[in-house]
Amino acid sequence: EKKGFIFDLDGVIVDTAKYHYLAWKKLANELGFDFTLEQNELFKGVSRKRCLEILLEIGKVNASREQFDRWMVEKNKDYLDYIEKMDASEILPDVPRVLEFLKNKKVPIALGSASKNARPILEKVGLLPFFDVIVDGNNVTKAKPDPEVFLIAASNLQVVPQNCVVFEDAVAGIKAANNAIMTSIGIGDSNTLTEANYNFNDFTEMTDDFLNSLLQ
Ligand code: B16
Ligand code: MG
């Protein structure tokens, strides 16, 4: 039966979490409080709007609707300044090998990301041609752990959810994949991604044999 593979972006294909962090930290500091790398973990896979809500809770800051929207714009502007300089050197190890392996097997590939900046990032690092389908923050109304982003990806790939494999680095993303009844593969710390069906520290640990086993 036909299989489909779905990749998260931030933390799976590229490490843009560090740029999100710097942009959120700058805003927090302007507002008079600190934002730690540990707190940044809570932001992974979470929508921009929800991130700002959490940030303001951390800093105990109240905002009008207008002010909230201005900070959203400001954070994204700073984030765009960072990703402006991205190139292929920022692709995480062995991502191109896995993408090429799947392409050679004619397996359809989708992106399933919460980011509204997903397309320009894929373009900058040169991976856009690998993706048959892109579903990102512009296409969804419900954030991970809601399965919406992955279910839309599966539907666009024309593969039933049960035959989809999802690569994710965020707890919310693994939950979203499991909620979609897809095979979930955690990329990163297995102590954090405890609900994943399989765990790998990164793609260098993922053998061709393992990928083939997913295609059976
Ligand atoms: P943007 P992913 C997510 O991407 C990030 O992990 C998360 O930290 C970020 O807030 C979210 O995208 C929205 O990003 O501000 O660019 O729309 O991991 O789902 O690829
Ligand atoms: Mg991610």
TrEMBL record:
Mg(2+) binds at D8, D10, E168, D169. Binds 2 magnesium ions per subunit. The record marks S113, K144 as: Important for catalytic activity and assists the phosphoryl transfer reaction to Asp8 by balancing charge and orienting the reacting groups. Belongs to the HAD-like hydrolase superfamily. CbbY/CbbZ/Gph/YieH family. Its cofactor is Mg(2+). It comes from the Bacteria. Substrate binds at D8, L9, D10, W24, K75, S113, A114, S115, K116, N117, K144. It comes from Maribacter algicola. The keyword Isomerase applies. This is Beta-phosphoglucomutase. It is an enzyme of class 5 (isomerase). The active site is at D8 (nucleophile), D10 (proton donor/acceptor). It holds the Pfam family Hydrolase. Its EC number is 5.4.2.6. Transmembrane segments: none annotated. PANTHER family: FRUCTOSE-1-PHOSPHATE PHOSPHATASE, GLYCEROL-1-PHOSPHATE PHOSPHOHYDROLASE 1-RELATED. Keywords: Isomerase, Magnesium, Metal-binding. InterPro entries: B-phosphoglucomutase_hydrolase, Beta-PGM, HAD-like_sf, HAD-like_SPP, HAD-SF_hydro_IA, HAD_sf, PGP-like_dom2. GO terms for biological process: carbohydrate metabolic process. GO terms for molecular function: beta-phosphoglucomutase activity; magnesium ion binding; sugar-phosphatase activity. Coiled coil: none annotated.
